[in-house]
């Protein structure tokens, strides 16, 4: 077998330590797959003296990650720091030196990927990023290679483990949002800044990448409509359940006649649908291709060793293709760089879906009729409705599932309903996604 490939590991956090453990534990099988051993020669962390949950006795630890990138005994760089700074500069330097890069950094790929891939193309260097989307699920490889025959029609999925963990725990154990988030952080699922998770930014980063490799469009993070789960209340979860739905944080990239939909939003899914049953840190993605139909991908979307699985798969790929001429490698964004072309991104107002509406109303006769009359006037049907009877001195709560309607028209209905004198504060609206139509 050839000499070992020497990896420089930037970051020894949740994922970095997972990579060290899995590489060491499965060293022999990984070498048999890659054709040569893969060893970590150097690593960096802000605090090089901090105790880590892995064996670093054979690894030189640096405080300055640039020393790892530039070291002569580093052939390949794995970036597991996260964020834009200093990751962009470090990866840029590795590329300039012709060192292949593996990263799990979705924020960087989604926001600066167009530049990085152009830089890498100029240098003939690889950048692999399987772990950037859906943790351990090999979704990048599946879309980029396995589905290469298809015109991809849609990619829909649960792509943030932290959000799914929080919504699941709120639903199953009845715990509050803050407690569930703390647990997700303790389990190593959340980003360094967890607002990226709960405000939907992390999922929007991942959707940006998925849409690009599915449709052959440039990475366009700023075009993704992004909403998180912070405003989801326990009563919405309960009312949705009573109506036969689960609330999931969903990423949706859909090709339509007039352009593409790119959005991440909390969404109701009928509880007999596959995605409604995906709980905890698990992620699931359904890709609809014109030839293959719908295919599903399911597994752990976050966590040290699950993510290490994807990082190491990229490492093996990189080692195998070291001698492959750049033009014969799988293109960074699935399509040949000069064949990538932008598509119109539809504004939310033009997107059609069914809706869930929760309204808090005074307990008076005729209130329900005035709400349903507004919906009827705007040609919006009520598919299901429940009313939670008020306890003494409380307002009543009404929850409605509507027919499919364009968002602009639904906005008008909401404005008119909110203006009714008997409607109190406590108004909530969420999309409902039906997959079989
Ligand atoms: P952590 O915060 O656990 O680890 C980050 C590591 O980078 C730490 O070792 C830290 O050093 C080091 N570091 C942080 N800032 C700097 C800096 N400015 N300069 C040098 N080193 C720095 O992150 P994760 O392991 O969770 O995530 C790493 C990457 O993987 C991110 O891009 C993340 O989005 C992505 N990812 C994470 C997943 C997960 O489940 N956690 C899943 C999929 C992707 P020190 O330890 O000394 O503080
Ligand atoms: N914070 C991310 C999540 C990590 O919860 O999904 C995996 O990308």
TrEMBL record:
GO molecular function terms attached to this record: homoserine dehydrogenase activity
Entries under SUPFAM superfamilies matching the protein: ACT-like, Glyceraldehyde-3-phosphate dehydrogenase-like, C-terminal domain, NAD(P)-binding Rossmann-fold domains
CDD domains: ACT_HSDH-Hom
UniProt feature coiled coil, ranges: none
Reactions catalysed: L-homoserine + NAD(+) = L-aspartate 4-semialdehyde + NADH + H(+)
Pathway, per record: Amino-acid biosynthesis; L-threonine biosynthesis; L-threonine from L-aspartate: step 3/5; Amino-acid biosynthesis; L-methionine biosynthesis via de novo pathway; L-homoserine from L-aspartate: step 3/3
InterPro entries tied to this protein: ACT-like_dom_sf (IPR045865), ACT_dom (IPR002912), Asp/hSer_DH_NAD-bd (IPR005106), HDH (IPR016204), HDH_cat (IPR001342), HDH_CS (IPR019811), NAD(P)-bd_dom_sf (IPR036291)
Keyword S-adenosyl-L-methionine: no
Residue ranges constituting the ACT domain according to the UniProt record: 356-431
EC number: 1.1.1.3
One Pfam family cited in the UniProt record for this chain: NAD_binding_3
Keywords for the protein's UniProt record, in alphabetical order: Amino-acid biosynthesis, Methionine biosynthesis, NADP, Oxidoreductase, Threonine biosynthesis
Keyword NADP tagged: yes
Similarity annotation: Belongs to the homoserine dehydrogenase family.
Name of the molecule in the record: Homoserine dehydrogenase
């Amino acid at each position: 077998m050839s000499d070992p490939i020497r990896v420089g590991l930037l970051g020894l956090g949740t994922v970095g330590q997972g990579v060290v453990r899995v590489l060491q534990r499965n060293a022999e099988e990984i070498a048999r797959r890659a054709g040569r051993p893969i060893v970590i020669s150097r690593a960096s962390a802000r605090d090089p003296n901090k105790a880590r949950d892995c064996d670093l006795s054979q690894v030189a630890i640096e405080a300055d990650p640039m020393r790892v990138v530039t070291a002569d005994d580093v052939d390949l760089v794995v970036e597991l720091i996260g964020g834009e700074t200093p990751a962009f500069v470090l990866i840029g330097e590795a590329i300039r030196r012709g060192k292949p890069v593996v990263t799990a950094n979705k924020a960087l790929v989604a926001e600066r990927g167009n530049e990085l891939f152009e830089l890498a193309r100029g240098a003939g260097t690889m950048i692999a990023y399987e772990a950037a989307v859906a943790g351990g699920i090999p979704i990048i490889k599946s879309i980029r290679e396995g589905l290469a025959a298809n015109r991809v029609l849609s990619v829909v999925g649960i792509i943030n483990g932290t959000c799914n963990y929080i919504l699941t725990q709120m639903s199953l154990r009845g715990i509050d949002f803050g407690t569930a988030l703390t647990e997700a952080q303790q389990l190593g699922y959340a980003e360094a800044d967890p607002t990226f998770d709960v405000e939907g930014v992390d999922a929007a980063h991942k959707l940006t990448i998925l849409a690009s490799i599915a449709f052959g469009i440039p990475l366009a993070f700023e075009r993704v409509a992004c909403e998180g789960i912070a405003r989801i209340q326990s009563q919405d979860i309960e009312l949705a359940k009573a109506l036969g739905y689960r609330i999931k944080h969903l990423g949706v990239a859909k090709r339509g006649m007039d352009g593409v939909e790119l959005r991440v939003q909390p969404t109701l899914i009928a509880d007999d649908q596959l995605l409604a049953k995906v709980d905890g840190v698990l992620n699931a993605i359904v890709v609809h291709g014109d030839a293959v139909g719908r295919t599903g991908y399911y597994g752990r979307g976050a966590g040290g060793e699950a993510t290490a699985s994807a990082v190491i798969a990229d490492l093996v790929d990189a080692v195998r293709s070291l001698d492959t001429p750049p033009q014969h490698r799988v293109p960074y964004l699935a399509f040949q760089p000069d064949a990538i072309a932008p598509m119109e991104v539809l504004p939310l107002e033009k997107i059609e879906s069914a809706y869930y509406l929760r309204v808090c109303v005074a307990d008076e006769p005729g209130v329900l009729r005035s709400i349903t009359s507004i919906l009827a006037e705007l040609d919006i049907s009520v598919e299901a409705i429940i009313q939670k009877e008020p306890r003494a001195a409380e307002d009543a709560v009404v929850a409605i599932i509507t027919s499919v309607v364009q968002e602009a028209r639904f906005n008008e209905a909401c404005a008119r309903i909110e203006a009714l004198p008997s409607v109190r504060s406590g108004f909530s609206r969420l999309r409902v996604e039906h997959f079989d139509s």
